[in-house]
Amino acid sequence: MKLFISFVLVILSFTAFAQDSTVSKLKTLTDNRQFDAIIEQYATSANLSAEALYYVGYAYFIKQDDNNCLKFMDLAIAKDGKDPKAHYIKGSTLNYMEEYDKAIACFKAAIALDPANADYYSGLGDAYYNLHLYDSALENYHKATKQKGAEERPFLMIPQVYFDLHQEDKALEALYSNVTKLSPESAGYTRSWFNIGQVEGLRGNYDKAEKAFLSVIAADSTDYHAYAKLMQVYYHNKAYEKAAVYRTKLYDAHKQGKLKDNMQDMFCFDQFKWNDKLIQVFERYEEGPQSRIFNKQIFYIVDKDGDVDFSIQTEYSPISIQLGGPKYILCGAKGGAHFNYGIGFNDDAKYDHLKDAVIKILEKKYAPVASTR
Fold first, then answer.
1. What is the pTM of this model?
2. What domain range is 338 assigned to?
C-alpha cells in the first residue's frame, strides 16, 4: 500500500510539473507576442490547466477570433473560476461582440475576485456606456480612475459621457482634471488639452483656448491639428503675426511629408459666423508659378445641417499674371456653376480685405462679372 501511495504521489508531482512547464512556455510565448505559435502548438492539446487554457484563449483574443476566445475562456473558468483575468477577457470579447448584458456579468465576476483592478471597472463602464446607461457608466469609470495603475481610457470616457448627457460644464471640469492627473507624455493628456481648447474656443474664451492649444503643442510638437486650431484663435483675435509663425510651421511640415489625411492638402485657419451659416476658411499649400488654375484660400459656406452650401475662393490665374494683373482672382462655386467676381488679390493682401470682399459677396453687394455652368 505504501508503495502504491508513493507511486501515485510521483505521478501527481510529474503532472503538476508538466502543467507548470506548459504554463511557463505559454507565458514566454505570450510575452514575446507569438500568438500564432500558441494556437498552433496548444489549441488542440489535451488536459491543459485553467491557466494554460487562459493563455490559449488570450491568443485568440489578440487574433480577434471571438468564438474561439470565448470557448477557451469558458473552459478556463470551468476548471478554475477564481481567475479574474479569464472573466475580464471574456467580458471584453462580449463587449466587442455587442453582447453587453452578458459582458456586464463577466466584469462583475472579475471585480468580485479582484476589486482593485482598474481595467475591470473600465470594461464594465464600457458595457454600460454602450447600453446608454450613463450613470452606471460614470460610476464605474470613476472607480477605475481611483485604482492604482489606471489606464487613460476611463479618464477620457468621463468627459465623453458628460458631453453625451449635454452637461458641458461637467465635461470641461473633467477635462481640466485629466491634465492634472495624466502623464504629459501620454496621448490622453494632449487629447484632453485639445478638447479643452475646442470647448473654450466655442465658448468665446479665446485666451483659455490659446493656452490649451499651446499646451498640446508643448507636449507634442507633431500635433499639427493643434497648429491649425491655434491659428483660428489668433485669426479671431486678429493676431495675424502670431498666426504666421504656425502657418510657416505647417508649410514646412508639408514640404517634409509629415502631414497626413485631411491636412495633406490644406488646413483650416479661420472660422466665423455669417447670419445663420458657419464660414470655414481653408488654405491650400499649393503655390505658383504654375501653368494651371488652382484654388488657394477657400471660404466654405456651411448650412445649419453641416453641409457645404457653396464656396468662395481665391483662384491662381496664370493668364492674369501674364497680363500683369493680380495673382489670384476671387471666384465662387455652387453645384456645377462657377462665378468670377473680377476682384484680384496678391500674396501680400491683407486678410481683412479678403474677408470683407467675401462678406460683400454673401450680402450680394458684389455680383459676378462672368459665370459658367
1. 0.90
2. 265-373
